[in-house]
Amino acid sequence: MLELIAIIIVIAVIQKMKANKTATRHTPPIFRDVLPQKPALSQKEVTRQVNKQIYGTENPQDRATVYNRLILTDRYQNIEKIAHELGISKYQALREIKKLKEEGHYLQVEIDERNYRLIYPSSREAPERIFVKPSKSYRPSSDSGERYEEWMSVPPGKRVVRCSYCGADNLISEKQDAHSCSCYFCREDL
């Protein structure tokens, strides 16, 4: 009798397992994890999302700040580089820059449409360097001191004199007067 009850329990467990397997096989995988569909976006919403992705802002009025960042730096003289940075075509970038220029932005920048370049005013170029003559000659004269560093040993017949102007140490002859010599570094009187 006990054997009969054990056999019935084993058969019931096997049937239960078969029922679970067939139930999972018959449910299509599409309906297991159903996510609600997003509603279709209008053209205005798509434009706002694209503007946010490209310019970092949904408001088209803020585009001027994006172009300020790109145009007013010298490395973006080429419109193709600006277009590449924004992920748009060079024609779109040219059209946007023209539109912003008509609105009053970038009055100092000229647009070369043929070569897709921006031309900056000449005031942005590097100023000419003016050579200024030094007040004293650069060559050390016969009465100037010699260079001396702390790690150097003082040769015989020389002494170390500190410059009162720059504080540098100079080597001069023991026989010379310190006030008649000039500093090796700043050329001021010792």
Provide structural commentary.
36% of the residues lie in helices and 9% in strands. It has 190 residues and is of the alpha+beta class. A hairpin with a 6-residue loop joins β4 (158-162) and β5 (169-173). It starts with a helix and ends in a 17-residue tail after the last strand. The radius of gyration is 42 Å and the shape is elongated. The strands form two sheets. It has a three-stranded antiparallel sheet, with no helix packed on it. Strands 1-2 form a two-stranded antiparallel sheet. The chain has helices at residues 2-26, 43-55, 63-71, 79-86, 90-102, and strands at residues 110-112, 117-119, 146-147, 158-162, 169-173. α4 (79-86) crosses α5 (90-102). Among the domains are: 45-123, Arc Repressor Mutant, subunit A (Orthogonal Bundle), CATH 1.10.10; 146-180, no CATH class.
Summarize it:
With 190 residues, the protein is α+β, with helices and mostly antiparallel strands. It contains five helices and five strands.
Average of pLDDT: 75
Q: Report the structural category.
A: alpha+beta
Distance between the termini: 125 Å
Radius of gyration: 42 Å
- Low-confidence runs: none
Major sheet description: 3 strands, antiparallel
CATH hierarchy class name of the domain at 45-123: Mainly Alpha
